[in-house]
TrEMBL record, chains A, B:
GO biological process: tetrahydrofolate interconversion
NCBIfam families linked: PRK13505.1 (NF010030)
Name this protein carries in UniProt: Formate--tetrahydrofolate ligase
Reaction catalysed by this enzyme: (6S)-5,6,7,8-tetrahydrofolate + formate + ATP = (6R)-10-formyltetrahydrofolate + ADP + phosphate
Keywords assigned: ATP-binding, Ligase, Nucleotide-binding, One-carbon metabolism
Keyword Nucleotide-binding belongs to the record: yes
InterPro entries for this protein: Formate_THF_ligase, Formate_THF_ligase_CS, P-loop_NTPase
Cited Pfam families: FTHFS
Keyword Ligase set for record: yes
Pathway: One-carbon metabolism; tetrahydrofolate interconversion
Any GO MF annotation of the entry: formate-tetrahydrofolate ligase activity
Family of the protein in this entry: Belongs to the formate--tetrahydrofolate ligase family.
Length: 564, 564
């Protein structure tokens, strides 16, 4: 149809299959499902064992070049690819993150794909789904209440510095920095604290990385909420909070089964922030999905230097799963933006000259694509370039991208999944299937036994392309402290801007000749990683002057309007 | 069984019916149900219209004498009564509030009844259920974020005083009073604010009192978040927040169908605080329940002066339903406590001499029971006394209560529902059924057209037994302001201690010769009432030194332990 109907119009017209039928396609027993409304079901974790004898699916992660502020369509491409694989006669399963309520009511709108490549039911997915995010908020804030309560009742454990903040699944900048305990002596201890968005909670990452309920319980216990004056960690286990947290999260650990517009199974589960957290959907969903079809398609947040690096180095290691191929989503507009010849700003229209036919501009931005393909290759994984086609693209521009991909030894396809659904992604599906037949030898960037600083340096030089890393003295000291306390064998995660391969959002293309500055490091002992901050990272978004929430309402029939 | 197994042991041994079967007993179509897991379903609101031609059930509210700090078993009695009515051949429906997570992890444990009179599944009920409380938290805090955001972006509406706080469903005293916006200029406006528990949210009351999705949407729009310098109200509609809030609450407005241990239908829905809010379950659940059986049994928070007064004056008016009988739960220990001869303290064992046979002590506490019966009569409703029997009771003590009830013209029954389930409540069921056959003429305490101050005075003198009311000047001024701005015809609600008929928790029995002091009044324009504060009311509980959460955990099979 031209013009394309809006996402919500397309979603509302969809004929949904029963989740029981969808599960049957996956070889999952009805007894393993708990229905949540008519179109969603939770899948019991015992399914992992039940499917253990089935063959392993090809494991495909969808990542991207360094994006413009608009994003380049990783989610739509993942959905479209799954639908395209089905059209090609395969039995794919899709595994994606659950959207956060904050952005839904902020600027971004829904996050269920777009056009004819969406996960449905769209309103359910974008609102509470089965309440997993709310369970994370409750578990996180119960621990926070128990920390504050412990201080109030005399601080027997001798907590000297508190590092555990609170979370809400809402964009509320006024809560970034608060003073709590601002009442009388019966109203808690006065101290500085603050709120992050729920997607930034360590509990969210724990839910995403846990391999079983028992593993979840243990990880919760290992959370470090603060430190004594002698530099000893104080954990959620020390506070006797981890059991109650696990109880709150018991159902949230079960993945949610939804479907694409074309009825492809979609496991939607957890939603860790892409910046200070892993930015990938859950391990348990992937362990189910990897035995419930012949292809498992998942997505990693931001570009290949961010989400895909964490997918390979952290998630695949935790899951014990080996990737077969990585799809790098690229758009004409993204490569043009990397030419650094145009000003692209969120909330503004693209400059008109950027929409004119400009294969040379695409070519000028190509180093970014080449670098991301080499990042994928550095892990021993097959890259595939997916050109996410826009109506404003020109054939000559697509040809440039095809040529660059081929020069880099990567398969490439143009995909029109937004306008045409799975039918538009059949070429992509075919080349992805071909790539998965190649011999791979998956190689993480670092060994867990490497020193923490070395791990950070290997990511900075081996993935980002930096010359080296400079550590602030406090960051060095913290790395030493973590190592002394037994956290030295954890993987690391670098929190930096997603708008550049470097830490400077203004550096486009594939920057060289720069050093990554690490100003601070922090510990996520429950999730199981150390994270290093390269620049200031926003963990609680704000709302714009006229946020999306102002346009969202119910119509007279009780339908949701304004969610797009 | 002697001794009685623990609540959670009894609950876990229960053989649950399918919610589809339970609904069938109620005359509700399967198509009206949305399953949430295997044992809970949401009931669509169109059921109200579908059942409109069916006969009206007898409407019975369970209330109590002024309780000891342990509570006197209103919930167990309501559950037992419903089970007893079923044993007597009736088709009862039970309608109760959903428990709050705060007390579950605080001191109180679960709130699903007790012994052989419980609502099940107990863990689901006491944890997230279907996420309705989380939806209230999200909607409430979205509005709070939009208020703070409006201030940050220039305060076009000229909000001078903000009255909208934030909520979390957790006991966290350190959040009672906070300073928000404590970061830099991009981190919001610095001001004093704080958090209440979700059960104290006006949004929770709106959900409880709304008669339809359209009514919910309108009530949300009427919420007053603050005032301009000129004394004009600023509403959620003015902030364009009410539509998004309604979207978040759309599913939460559908009542949750559970069951008692004996398979009786139980609609569990909403949970407004008993103090500053209405303390009653939802109007929509009662409108469904009142056509889905021959008896609808519900409970009102705290004693007859508190929850039942609000049930009659606020909820029944909003629902358009007329009560037939009110069960006043009484225990031997409560009347002994009202003798003022014993010290009863939360967290301490009852004094040994209180457990000795003491009919004279019961007699000495009887004025409290007599007063509550006269409160029920003042509404033109038939009272029934339910003696909630304890193993430590003596027959002579029950006899005193029977005699007092009879002297007051009330039916009376001893109920052993905790130890024996519905079988133990058959006598109670019979006398309740008899009472419902009496002619009644329901009469609220005041007319909506009475001035606000008069309404408060009529409750204080006509219900509590005060000589009169003294208003602080600020309270008088606020009542005048509310009247000028068009809120004069709202009902009123008085927030006072539940531990006495008066505002002083130390005054036992039926105090006389006292004046009710109103220090402050507030407006809940969306919920649709003005509330007057008589004493300081805690809207955010704290945790004890060793809260219940410390004992709650998962066992090796993944079962919840420590919830009792």
């Amino acid at each position: 149809m031209t013009p394309l109907p809006s996402d919500i119009e397309i979603a509302r017209d969809a004929q949904l299959r029963s989740p029981l039928d969808v599960a049957q396609d996956m070889g999952i027993d009805t007894a393993q499902l708990e229905p949540y409304g008519h179109h969603v079901a939770k899948v019991d974790l015992s399914t992992i064992d039940q499917l253990a004898d089935r063959p392993q699916a090809k494991y495909v992660v969808v990542t991207a070049v360094t994006p413009t502020p608009f994003g380049e369509g990783k989610t739509t491409t993942a959905v479209g690819l799954a639908q395209g694989l089905a059209k090609e006669g395969h039995s794919p399963v899709l595994a994606l993150r659950q959207p956060s309520l904050g952005p839904v009511f902020g600027i971004k709108g829904g996050a269920a794909g777009g056009g004819y490549s969406q996960v449905v039911p769209m309103e359910v997915l974008n609102l509470h789904l089965t309440g997993d995010f709310h369970a994370v908020t409750a578990a996180h804030d119960l621990l926070a209440a128990m920390v504050s309560n412990h201080l109030h009742h005399g601080n027997e454990l001798g907590i000297h510095t508190v590092e555990w903040r609170r979370v809400l699944d809402i964009n509320d900048r006024a809560l970034r920095a608060i003073i709590e305990g601002n009442g009388g002596p019966m109203d808690g201890v006065t101290r500085q604290s603050g709120f992050d968005i729920t997607a930034a909670s360590e509990v969210m990452v724990i839910l995403a990385l846990a391999t079983s309920l028992a593993d979840l319980r243990e990880r919760l216990g290992r959370i470090v909420v603060g430190w004594t004056k002698a530099g000893e960690p104080v954990t959620a286990e020390d506070l006797k909070a981890a059991g109650a947290m696990a109880v709150l999260l018991r159902d949230a650990l079960k993945p949610n089964l939804l479907q694409t517009l074309e009825g492809t199974p979609a496991l939607i589960h957890t939603g860790p922030f892409g910046n200070i957290a892993t930015g990938n959907s859950s391990v348990v969903a992937d362990r189910i999905g990897s035995r419930a079809g012949d292809f498992l398609v998942t997505e990693a947040g931001f570009a290949a230097d961010m989400g895909a690096e964490r997918f390979f180095n952290v998630k695949c290691r935790a899951a014990g799963l080996t990737p077969d191929a990585a799809v790098v989503v690229v758009t004409v507009r993204a490569l043009k933006a990397h030419s650094d010849r145009f000003q692209v700003k969120l909330g503004k229209e693209l400059p008109a000259e950027m929409l004119a036919e400009g294969p040379a501009d695409v070519e000028a931005g190509a180093p970014n694509l080449r670098k991301h393909l080499s990042i994928i290759r550095s892990f021993g994984v097959q890259p595939v370039v997916a050109i996410n086609a826009f109506p404003t693209d020109h054939d000559s521009e697509h040809e440039v991208i095809r040529r660059i991909a081929t020069e880099e030894g990567a398969r490439v396809a143009v995909s029109t999944h937004v306008a045409e659904g799975g039918q538009g992604a059949r070429e992509l599906a075919r080349v992805v299937a071909e790539a998965c037949e190649e011999e791979t030898s998956f190689t993480p960037t670092y060994e867990l036994s490497d020193p923490l600083a070395t791990k950070i340096e290997k990511i900075a030089t081996g993935v980002y392309g930096a010359d080296g890393v400079s550590f602030e003295p406090a960051a060095r000291r913290a790395l030493e402290q973590y190592t002394e306390r037994g956290y030295g064998e954890l993987p690391v995660l670098i929190a930096k801007t997603q708008m550049s391969l470097s830490h400077d959002p203004n550096l486009k293309g594939a920057p060289t000749g720069w050093t990554l500055p690490i100003r601070e490091v922090r510990l996520a002992a429950g999730a199981g990683y150390v994270y290093a901050l390269a620049g200031s990272i926003m963990t609680m978004p704000g709302l714009s002057k006229h946020p999306g929430a102002e346009r969202i309402d119910l119509d007279e029939q009780g339908n949701v309007v304004g969610l797009f």
